[in-house]
Amino acid sequence: MEGHVHPDFGTVTEKLAHLTSKRSAIGGAAVAVYHRGELVVDVWTGDRDAAGRPWERDTMAMSFSTTKGVVATIVQRLVDRGLLDYDAPVATYWPEFAAAGKDTITLRHLLTHQAGLHDVRSIADSAEDLINWEHMTKLLAEAEPKWDIGTKSSYHAWTYGWLVGEVIRRVTGLTVNEALQREIVEPLGVSGMYIGAPAEVRGDIAEQLVDPKAVTRLFKMTRTLAKAKSFQPMYQAMVVDDLLDVATADHIHDGEIPAANGVFTARSLARMYAALATPGDFDGPPLVSADTLREATRVQTTLGPNGDGRGGEKVGRDAGVGFNMRWRLGYHLVGTTKGVLPQAFGHFGFGGSGAWGDPESGLAVAMILNQVGGTPFGDTKMLRIGGAAVRSAERRSS
After folding, report:
1. 53: three-class secondary structure by DSSP
2. Contact partners, residue 258, CB within 8 Å, separation at least 6
3. CA 103 to chain centre
4. 310 pLDDT exceeds 90?
5. pLDDT class of 306 with cuts at 50, 70, 90
6. Shortest CA distance to 65 belongs to which of 323, 297, 344, 258?
7. Catalytic pick among 21, 24, 63, 65
8. For residue 239, what are the CA distances in angstroms to 176, 188, 236?
């Protein structure tokens, strides 16, 4: 293992060493942790490709749905500047979107997965379609919601990216990756953050390595989802034919898929969440204003009298993932082996990546890796790394 770790946080690197030394582990990983503005863990280990080349300091990895939290942070920046309003209809920014009764869908609905547009299988014939921005956004603009808008949440595993991303493109005139560079990378002075990676940085991206046993389990789960009525929203939202073939190919980076194909270093992700969670620990203006961040990180999955997400009874279980995600505006709950952190917010991704910030503990934690396998919600690596970070912070503060 290379990099550096503060002695108070040695438990985190011990946990990473254990996770990457298991018989089933392949590839490599990187972990970064900030505590009260200090980078206390910045380590990497393992192989970046099938040839056995070692993971390096600036190695990036495609982090699947961890990308969604980064996209959400771009949105918060645009809200701060008055370019976006959470409660404005999406059609305000994207007029074609009003088709098929979608004129009342707001940006808040998109960010909390309550738009009823989770069904990627009905619009994508194959995973190759996922790289075609114009194709996907055109079909989503024409699509009809699966149920009454705002009545329930159902994880928009793939469609979140084009829905929120097209709003970003319409108001900025930039691609999502260009907006990422302007709104997050440049203000923070970080490197190693892309959505749809340009050719000149692809040599720094770890190769996605497939775990055959884990993929077998995934296919079994897929068949179960296809047969069970109660799992149809999950199946519709996540399963695209030939997905693994495309996800592990180099051309996955040719287009922007803002729900899934972000490539990051752990260090850049942790720095972003540290800037959000503990802005007072850094010099300069905050990345997002206190008022905007307060609204963005408040649990939103409640229904008011007008279905506007404010007040009223909780929506509860997300129809797509089977449990209450406690959706914020583009972020979800943060679980660790030390329990759910009530004030924390972030996003995890397929295969075990994830990143989050917690104002209460002062922590920001990120993990990236290049092992492809498992199930979207059955991997515990990030939970264990997070638990180790929490325990270390508690001991340090006692």
Report:
1. coil
2. 67, 68, 71, 160, 161, 162, 164, 165, 168, 176, 195
3. 27
4. no
5. very low
6. 258
7. 65
8. 24, 35, 6
Active site residue 392: no
Of residues 317, 326, 355, the one with CA closest to residue 64:
355
Residues of 28-59 as b/e, b for ≥16 C-beta within 10 angstroms?
bbbbbbbbbbebbbbbbbbbbbeeeeebeeeb
- Nearest residue to 357 via CA among 10, 34, 14, 26: 34
Average pLDDT over residues 282-287: 96
Tokens of 143: 């699509």
Query: What is the three-class DSSP state of 3?
Result: strand
| pLDDT per position as a tens digit, 109-162 | 999 999 999 999 888 888 899 999 999 999 999 999 998 898 889 999 999 999
Residue type, 22: K
Whole-model pTM?
0.94
CA proximity to 363, closest of 332, 323, 395: 395
Amino acid sitting at position 364: A
Say which residues have a Cβ less than 8 Å from residue 394's Cβ, sequence separation at least 6: 361
